[in-house]
């Protein structure tokens, strides 16, 4: 095989101009927090402080909810759908125009490779606004009754793994349906939401329609618990999701929860091995494995186990870990020191419980938060690494003999967000997919997203659907 010399191809950081500090975005303006605090957003690849960001307290959240309520009553709720659509299309176009800047920003703040922020996250963000812009004037044809109405003010709390994409998943359908929003981005990745606020200004979106309150968990709780919020949308851990479900129980608030996962990626012995290996790698190492629907449990039919494992190891040895802004990078930085600790702790537990870890030789940068791509073999269903969400580049490999055993093992989890099936046989895809308790089942592919497809879970992966026509329902009083 020819050997290629590696030459770094870094994207320019100067494309994005980050100010030293940022306020909250309330009623169309950047404002200082009333409650006063600030926190720092850090580049996880270098531990450099990128900016100081305002921390919203209860009074700030209240101000944002009041702005959202006023905008809902006066402007956005009564506005005809065809007019709202124009704003969504305008936002979508600005995102597309500023995509390079947004991709660099997202990679700096989150640690994900520029190849992913440039080719996956940001194009999907624009696509979501285009898609839901298209629905804004057609809601009465969406199957939710002749005259579906908006719900009111949506309180939305999002995680750090796809910061701008999760914002788009939440904000685009809410606005299309005539709701206004108060959104809290994750503490470690607030910057792209603040850029989105700037885009709202650029698009002349009426003040108060979108409000961004940065902060930590307490700010999220203040949004969820605010009495004048009509609908809560949350993506994050199952643990916090349960707290939110308990907090809104007994109130009139609607809620959708998109929580954790422990997806099975099932490879049958007739699957094309090289193609399956690409899918396995994409399933678990995409975005450092910080993906709720990551294929973190590989189930391989015993007869192809040796061949598949050898091929997977060969492929893993070619993965480049390092500078997220380098266009050659496959695996970037772990999002935070706290997340790195969690990944390390669960991996150590895996080894202590008897599973065997393997990583290709790879040099990790000295500064920043890094974890080498890792697979564990000899994993049984009782192991914690087979049951708990690691949310990192760590794959647990299990085996099976029959399709029935594959299905039983795949479903043996408290989660039910996604799954993958690899086989040449179409009938087997249909039969296995039918038996899997997972919201999304990919066949001979993995981690494919489209604004037109609904996404969501069963069991402890949450409830409600986002994306597609289904994603409108949570934001409409039908
Ligand atoms: P969290 O669930 O804590 O964070 C998700 C969002 O909720 C963040 O914006 C967070 O704020 C906010 N939040 C935290 N506590 C509350 C609360 N009581 N009420 C309202 N909002 C709150 O995830 P973590 O970042 O702590 O990650 C922990 C683990 O969760 C990960 O290791 C991973 O396993 C899993 N996870 C799963 C995700 C998924 O998509 N399925 C996404 C993220 C994490 P803040 O950022 O300030 O904490």
Note down, in words, how this protein is organized:
With 478 residues, this protein is an alpha/beta fold. It is 38% helix and 17% strand. The protein contains 14 helices and 20 strands. It has helices at residues 58-76, 81-97, 99-110, 114-135, 163-176, 191-202, 217-225, 238-248, 273-285, 305-316, 337-352, 384-387, 403-411, 426-435; strands at 21-22, 24-26, 29-31, 38-42, 49-54, 149-150, 153-157, 180-184, 210-212, 231-235, 254-258, 264-267, 297-301, 356-358, 374-377, 394-400, 418-422, 440-443, 462-463, 476-477. The strands form five sheets. The protein has a seven-stranded mixed sheet, with helices on both faces. It has a six-stranded mixed sheet with strand order 9-8-7-10-11-19, with helices on both faces. Helix 4 (114-135) packs parallel to helix 5 (163-176) and helix 9 crosses helix 10. The chain is globular, with a radius of gyration of 22 Å. The structure holds NADPH dihydro-nicotinamide-adenine-dinucleotide phosphate (NDP).
